[in-house]
């Protein structure tokens, strides 16, 4: 489904389909310039060495802005890595699900279920809530969540793409809390500091596909499972400041522009949040106005 985006000067449209979302027009215009020639260096962002001065500057700004928007302190590492949400759902279990322990999963939708299935390849999981029987139509209250005795972590998906439900507040637990925020990172205020891991693929809100933002508490990195190929180890990637191998430079650069745009718009609560509400309003108005749905959806 597409609709005219009245916020900009061109004939661009909104894109409501699954997958990548539209990006702010000013971000795309900046990228158009920087693809040809970034920072007056004579070549574009796609052509620079990922370890050279121009890209180091891009990385530093992106990292600083991400720290500012997320509000996490020095006890969290911020990583920009290859791979999408699925890769990191699998890597989290690879890194942090040790033998003899259990990873607990709240199954509130497709991606929460997929994350658990990836973890099953590496160790023991426990389903702490399963919304399958009611077609994932609700978020559990604390009383509905049955955690295992001493989970290595508790994983949930804050916003369930496809089913449209989202957590109003994180589930309560003393275990390290992992959240997949792929469809809403920085589109609403959230307690990133209170999570051991917050992760999101870039393409929903933050930039083009091919990379993810992973915010991870440093003490967890010290507990990484042994024997991993280095490239799949968050600790090894953190040690090399997200440049253990060639990272998805363009995606990271674009995330930086989006972070800058969010800040310029007045921060998380005033930028993507407002824009996403406007976009959702178009859909809800169309549904309400269709006269074809008797018991209409509730606006978030
Ligand atoms: C909430 C959520 N998590 C994970 C994913 C998977 O992301 P990727 O396609 O980058 O693996 C998606 C994709 O739609 C998603 O919406």
- Largest sheet, order of strands side by side? 3-11-10-9-6-4-5
What fraction of residues sit in β-strands?
A: 15-25%
Give a count of the beta strands, DSSP E runs of length 2 or more.
11
The radius of gyration over CA amounts to 20 Å
Could you report the average pLDDT, rounded to the nearest whole number?
Answer: 92
Helix content: 25-40%
Ions, cofactors and other ligands present here are: pyridoxal-5'-phosphate
Structural category is alpha/beta
Measured between the Cα atoms of the first and last residue, the distance is: 20 Å
**Low-confidence segments, ≥5 residues, pLDDT <50?**
none
Give a short synopsis of this structure.
With 300 residues, this protein is of the alpha/beta class. Helices cover 33% and strands 17% of the residues.
